[in-house]
């Protein structure tokens, strides 16, 4: 069996990886501050204790879209 070498990501792929990492960091920062990932508003205490990154309004509108 031949060992395959991993190819190096292109500059475009590296940019996407960095952008995605920045998005994740921003979402975590908002969640730690008790802010909604979608709109930035305050997440109610009961939802925050459950680890929800979304406020009540955003959770409801997400359900309506699906």
Summarize the structure.
With 66 residues, the chain is mainly α. It has one domain.
Give a description of the structure.
- With about 70 residues, this protein is an all-alpha fold.
- The protein has one domain (about 10-65).
- It is built from three helices and no strands.
- The mean pLDDT is about 85.
Furnish the topology, listing elements before pairings.
Elements: H1 11-32, H2 45-49, H3 56-65
Please give the share of residues in helix.
55-70%
Major beta sheet summary: none
Q: Alpha-carbon distance between the termini? A: 46 Å
Outline: elongated
Radius of gyration: 18 Å
Total DSSP helices: 3
> Regions with pLDDT < 50 over 5+ consecutive residues?
none
Number of strands: 0
Q: Please indicate the count of domains.
A: 1
Mean of residue pLDDT values = 86
Question: H/E series, N to C?
Answer: HHH
Structural class: mainly alpha
Beta-strand percentage? under 5%
Name the features.
single chain; 66 residues; mainly alpha; 56% helix; 0% strand
